[in-house]
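README: folding subset

This subset contains proteins for which both the sequence and a predicted structure token string are available. Records are stored as plain text. Below is the entry for Glutamine synthetase (356 residues), shown exactly as it appears on disk.
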Amino acid sequence: MSLLSDLINLNLSDSTEKIIAEYIWIGGSGMDLRSKARTLSGPVSDPPKLPKWNYDGSSTGQAPGEDSEVILYPQAIFRDPFRRGNNTLVICDAYTPAGEPIPTNKRHAAAKIFSHPDVVAEVPWYGIEQEYTLLQKDVKWPIGWPIGGFPGPQGPYYCGVGVDKAFGRDIVDAHYKACLYAGVNISGINGEVMPGQWEFQVGPSVGISAGDELWVARYILERITEIAGVVLSFDPKPIQGDWNGAGAHTNYSTKSMREEGGYEVIKKAIEKLKLRHKEHIAAYGEGNERRLTGRHETADINTFSWGVANRGASVRVGRDTEKEGKGYFEDRRPASNMGPYVVTSMVAETTILWKP
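--- output ---
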């Protein structure tokens, strides 16, 4: 008799050309990932050639019960690290039956910005540093922490090694390899300042693909923590008190910034970000005011600042960028639960299209 694990790991290509496509979308909260699978007659590599599908939007907070059908439009395809073989993960966005994007479809508006000729010409690159916290399932307390108590103060945990410093490395490494398998442009991982907190980086990715890749990386992490029996938290301040929060620092450059004289372009872009600070903060994640306090490597939420190598600023410019006179900068304001389509397109719109 086969074991359950044997059946889960069946290689479908041994007996059929059919594949399983897991359609993934974002639910009504803006952070709840949803997915369901369907059988296709064979592999498909071009998203528009995949069939559209539908779901019950009244069950995800995205449609009324009397008119609940929401249509999924496939937008990006990745290899499936769970089913493997020719099976795929499909990032979708959501529309009404009449073809209008539903209010929670943030990808549609972002795609409009990224398809603007002025933005296309600047080839915007993004590198997103996604921080997250792993929690014990039944008590919602960080893994590695004594239940009802606290570990030693921060200091030894950042990029730490050892049983008393690094908690959840098996989950983190499984996620790293699964993302590489899937085709996500994941560029690294590290342990974070608060114990039980980790970070992965996606990028450099161009335009809308940064959002697609971050969302599928989040989905893969949700699935792995599901298997491990651990709760994944994107809360920007999961533990109150003298503990670091969780952000999604967004590194950004344009073609003009990467060329000679780019440092002056960077400074002009930062000045534009300063002028729209309130608008950006409003779009950079729920609960971010609990994180952006001016402590724990953050700038105060009400004050815009920038500096070279300054991790206490709203925007940080690297030493290498200053030295070479070109490169990129880091917007340190986005929270860990930010919407990547919103943040990436807003940065591009403000720095490239907006005329103060």
